[in-house]
Design brief:
four-stranded antiparallel β-sheet; alpha/beta; six-stranded mixed β-sheet; about 260 residues; binds adenosine-5'-triphosphate; Rossmann fold
Length: about 260
């Protein structure tokens, strides 16, 4: 019996014949692809190819002019499980005077209505601490986000995306403007999450060294100007592992032992 297909190779993103235009300008034309649970997908394309537009459609910020997106098997219009998805948009030019602290930024990633009213339970603060710890930025919790370096801010935005312990992470050029060393540790973290935490990744990147190093030399598929590099966490026939979900704390302890080693 191949329980695996059911257990961990479901389609969690299905993009079905999607087209999109800004005003009259066609950016995406009849794009189809799918992302299976626990895959790592690198979405590559030239500047202006429509990568960010594609991600914004997938997270429901833009509506396709034609075609359909399904998330975890449900049409996006009916999808309610947004806490299962973490999204880190392209590096935004954060106003250094933006008054929120790191902790507030991370807490604002919590799913549900409470976040809008700033009402947080003890459990919320524990989740926040876990996410900060996992990203190694707990010491910065009370700093203003605008005071942090680009690399530190990216870790905070990743912590914000992780606070709900999502099963799918969507990252839009997460390492732009970050020095090489910080990039490496960032990629180490996300590879770890892919390999040990059953997370699925869809990542836009121009870093071909990382993409080819982790996802293979050649794209597995293409749609228009978009190329998809894909790494499966494991083959379907090897789906014997179940319930591998670890807490984010575990990731932190792995990171620490790496630092010490
Ligand atoms: N809000 C907008 N209004 C009009 N045109 C837009 C808008 N956003 C993006 N575009 C245009 O749509 C095209 C695709 O943009 P998009 O940001 O999706 O590309 P990209 O592949 O992510 O590019 P990059 O690698 O430069 O980030 C570009 O030509 C861009 O100028």
């Amino acid at each position: 019996m191949n329980r695996g297909t059911e257990a961990c190779h479901r389609d969690i993103i299905t993009v079905d014949s999607v087209s999109f235009s800004y005003q009259q300008r066609v950016v995406l034309n009849d794009v189809s692809f799918n992302v299976k649970e626990r895959d790592f997908i690198g979405l590559i394309g030239t500047n202006g190819a429509g990568k960010t537009t594609m991600l914004r459609i997938i997270v429901g910020l833009l509506r396709p002019t034609a075609g359909e997106v399904r998330l975890f098997g449900e049409p996006i219009s009916q999808f309610k499980g947004w806490e299962r998805i973490g999204y880190v948009p392209q590096k935004n030019n954060l106003n250094p005077l933006f008054p929120a602290t790191v902790k507030e930024v991370v807490l604002s990633g919590l799913a549900g209505k409470r976040k809008w009213f700033g009402l947080h339970s003890r459990q919320d603060y524990i989740k926040c601490d876990d996410a900060l710890m996992a990203m190694g930025v707990e010491d910065l919790a009370d700093k203003r986000i605008g005071q942090l370096s680009g690399g530190q801010q990216q870790r905070v935005f990743l912590a914000r995306a992780l606070i709900n312990n999502p099963s799918l992470l969507i990252l839009d050029e997460p390492t732009v403007g970050i020095d090489h060393e910080t990039q490496e540790s960032f990629f180490h973290m996300i590879k770890h999450m892919h390999q040990h935490h059953n997370m699925t990744f869809l990542m836009v990147s121009h870093d071909m060294e990382m993409i080819k190093g982790y996802l293979g030399e050649q794209p597995k598929s293409a749609a228009g100007k978009l190329n998809f590099y894909i790494r499966h966490s494991h083959e379907t026939q090897d789906c014997v592992e179940e319930n591998l979900a670890h807490s984010l704390k575990h990731l932190r302890s792995q990171m620490e032992s790496r630092k010490e080693g």
